[in-house]
Amino acid sequence: MEKVSGKTALVTGSTDGVGRLVARKLGQAGARVLVHGRDADRGARVVGDINASGGAADFLAADLSSLAEVRRLADEVQARVDRLDILINNAGIGTAGPHQTSVDGFELRFAVNYLSGFLLTLLLLPLIKNSAPARIVNVSSAGQQPIDFGDVMLTRGYSGARAYCQSKLAQIMFTIDLGAALEGTGVTVTSLHPATYMDTSMVRRAGVRPLSTVEEVARAILNLAISPAVEGQTGLYFNGLREATAQAQAYDPDARQRLQALSLELTGLSAEVAALDR
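The structure assignment produced for this chain is given below.
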């Protein structure tokens, strides 16, 4: 582990599974860690573990299925800290379960796995830029499926796997565009498939036998978050510790533009940007 004393990190979905381990390791390495989750008791336990190991941590509660909650989380981060060196968008929902919609009426996996991170990242971007050099890591997956822009919310032919894979490709497409937009700012953004069938509750709920340890997964995420070996690398997708190629739609500029326009509209950011331009 690289020492990250003096740095501040936000890890979404860090009261369980790999997020919890990543948060603990960052705290042990000297970072101030903002632990995020929905359950205050579990959050308090993670914060207690980090503080007991000599680190520093705070718990921030938010339900990422609600865009209003995402906005509140961003406001709380900015009120709590004056810098954000590392943002790890780790929170997510797996493939198990029926078609569900978010508080805002969006397909739940698209909302939690992708839209929440899209909105949170853009709301926190001024703080992250002011903390440069800084890094953003989007925890995606090798499970990727092209987005059907005629039915993004999957009202026809729904499956949990299809919803999950679409949301994970959207994360990668966002990473590519944001990497280009942040060129020269000192902020890098990468995405990754951390490991196959990791030993987490998400995988077990899907009825799949785990093939990778949580420690392997954490190592891959932390590599992008703090390792000098990937310094300056941005807009890229990794499989574990190595750069990889994502599903073909990720490299289609027209598809990425459509996704960006839709995402700005669904999160309300397009109206805010237009208001600033007036």
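Interim note for the steering committee: The radius of gyration is 17 Å. The first strand starts at residue 8 and ends at 11.
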